[in-house]
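chain below, 403 aa
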Amino acid sequence: MRYLFVLVGMALVLVAFGCESSGLGPTEVTVTVTVSGDGAGNGSVTSLLPPGSVVPDFDVDCQVSAGVATGTCTDSFLDVGGQGEFHLVAIPAAGSVLTEWSGACAGSGACNLAFDSTENVSFAVTARFEPWSLGGTIAFDNDRDGNEQIYTLALDGVSSPVKVSDGLGDDDEVAWSPDGTRLAFDSDRGAERDIYVMNADGSGASVNLTNNPAGGDDEPAFSPDGLLIAFDSDTDGDEDVYVMRADGSQLVNLTNTSSNDGDAWWSPDGTQIVFQSDRDGNNEIYVMNVDGTGTPQNLTNNAGNDGEPSWSPDGAKIAFESDRDGNTEIYVINADGTDAAVRLTESVGQDEEPTWSPDSTLLAFASDRGGDFDIYVINASDGSGLARVTEDPADDEDPAWTK
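prediction:
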């Protein structure tokens, strides 16, 4: 059995055709999938195969521009019989959001299409892309100028990224102060990687807070009141979570273990810190008291690697990345550890580094689903409403969101 993607008019058609059946192989069937576009936004539709699929790998690249589906959408493969399944994934262009599928697909997440390869079947789906305006401002890092620099982007659907760091080193892993006037980040512009702060508009000079010749410091996070900064450091040989005042004084090692502890994030009430640790063999998400007392609670307790936790501003949820299902995807879990983690993304690429919108309804994250890493946004409740924030040949990563 062979399948062929062909572009007919403005629609993407997948036709399955087979050789003469000898009675020993699978029954000859035809599977037809028609993809069309809708809406005023732009995007693309690509294919994704689930693990263990009987359908061999294929590639689809169908562009949708202002409601018109175009592009190169041809490939073929051999059927091996049995139950078939494939996914259609809609990837918005920068400034667009997938508002909904219609036809054989519904909602605005991945479209899962299953078929019995002993029967002819047809699917017709439409991907609707629209322009977006999300509100607030995203900060992120990008190496478009040769080394990692900090950029900010107003999420109004029309603004362009603005470089705010000075280009003296590789600057990344940015965090906003609660009032939105300062940015903390780590940089290797000195002898070691240190924690710096600067004005959010890029004015004035950046200030080195740690100036640590004995090890590398990274992943800063402001406390909710802006008075403290948590960060990672390998000063003592392994990575630990430290806290200091926002001026760099009164440094305290909170974890002080032989394991690697890092990626700290504050609870919105300032009483706890969530972080990742390999103290139980693989990376898990833990919560500890802000002063380091007591025994940290393992929230994830999974065989996969969980990291990059981010606490929702309303205190209810913690988002994180995990490779528990194969590639790295975005998950959320209740902040108190009740109930299982819920997977929000499904991508052929890597989805990483989630961060919350100020109102806790959306999640921004970095993904290479479009070829290189860009910043995307989804609804935090169910992963729907995929919007693309950046689109650049260089990698955009480590997003942080402020009002």
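The chain is about 0% helix and 50% strand. Confidence is low (pLDDT under 50) at residues 1-28, 72-78.
thats it, cya
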